[in-house]
């Protein structure tokens, strides 16, 4: 007959596997490892939210730098986009601003701004 495995032992192994890479008792002791794994999950969840916040602020900084080089403020640029119903999000605008300046200039003109080229 096959040997039955203890459900608690299975759970313990699962927790210890998740705690791999932790230091000292947090990797070896079941209760401490379980607590550490729960905290790590909470920190990871919160970190994913923070990363979204950080990326959005990075996109805004990039767009702001690009439009201020053209003599327009960021807030007026975004208001112009909304007024003209141009539905590009900040991620795409940031990518265009950093990779293709000519296209970005066309978008700024479409948003209703006139500027002088410094070239």
What descriptive keywords fit this protein?
119 residues; mainly alpha; c-terminal domain of poly(a) binding protein; 6 helices; rod-shaped
Give a written overview of the molecule.
The structure is a single chain. The protein has helices spanning 7-18, 25-28, 30-69, 74-83, 90-99, 101-110. The protein is mainly alpha-helical. The chain is rod-shaped. It has six helices and no strands. Helix content is 72%, strand content 0%.
Q: Would you identify the CATH H-level superfamily? A: Ribosomal protein L20, C-terminal domain
Number of domains: 1
Categorize the overall geometry: rod-shaped
Helix content: over 70%
Q: Taking Cα atoms only, what radius of gyration do you get, to the nearest Å?
A: 26 Å
Overall pLDDT score: 93
CATH topology: c-terminal domain of poly(a) binding protein
The H/E string reads: HHHHHH
CATH class, named Mainly Alpha
Q: Please give the alpha-carbon distance between the first and last residues.
A: 84 Å
Nutshell version of this structure?
This protein has 119 residues and is mostly helical. It is 72% helix and 0% strand.
Please render the helix and strand layout as text:
Layout: H1 7-18, H2 25-28, H3 30-69, H4 74-83, H5 90-99, H6 101-110
């Amino acid at each position: 007959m096959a040997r039955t495995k203890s459900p608690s032992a299975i759970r313990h192994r699962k927790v210890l596997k998740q705690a791999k890479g932790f230091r000292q008792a947090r990797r070896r002791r079941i209760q401490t490892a379980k607590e550490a794994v729960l905290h790590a999950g909470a920190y990871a969840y919160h970190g994913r939210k923070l990363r979204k916040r950080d990326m959005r602020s990075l996109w805004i900084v990039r767009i702001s730098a690009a439009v201020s080089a053209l003599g327009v403020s960021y807030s007026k640029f975004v208001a112009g986009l909304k007024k003209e119903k141009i539905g590009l999000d900040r991620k795409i605008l940031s990518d265009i601003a950093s990779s293709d300046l000519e296209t970005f200039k066309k978008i700024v003109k479409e948003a209703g701004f006139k500027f002088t080229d410094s070239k």
